[in-house]
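Hi support team,

I submitted a single chain yesterday and got back a structure, but I'm not sure I'm reading the token output correctly. Could someone confirm the output below corresponds to the sequence I sent? I've pasted both exactly as they appear in my results page.

Thanks,
R.
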Amino acid sequence: MVEISQESTPLSKMNLNNARESEQIKRMKKLARTGQCHFCRDGFEDRHTAPIIYEGYRWFITANNYPYSGATHHYLIVPKVHITQLGQLPVEAQVGLIEAFRWLEKHLETPGYTAFVRSGDLSYTGATIDHLHFHFLSGVQDGKGTEKLKVTLGYKNKPQE
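Hi R., thanks for writing in. Yes, this is the structure output for that exact sequence:
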């Protein structure tokens, strides 16, 4: 686990072991040297390759730089302030979160989607960066149904041999 901090950015943690792609690991190591939190709003465009497509009072939406296999759309809904636990969200931010989801549903005109959040200790959640964010995914239509999303959400015990 790598801890980063900077006066203008709150303490953030990263777990390189949870990264799925080599480019992701390279970018996380570079980020650790800067002392910035990848998801904090200030300077986000300098750290993330996809543009912000929606910005509300408390949340913004961007495409995931490393989308999950099988997803037609994979967006991140991110609080503008550094929050690490779902329980830290003030009521006003909860309302803003619903507004962000509604905007994305309408923008994509998707008939369905999967949404999830990782909250808390990165070694338990499988997350790479300790800044609360929601994943919004929709599957691939192939004419025969929907392709299953291939997503690791956390960990499970391996069977004993």
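A quick pointer for reading it: Residues 91-108 form the longest helix (18 residues). Let us know if anything else looks off.

Best,
Support desk
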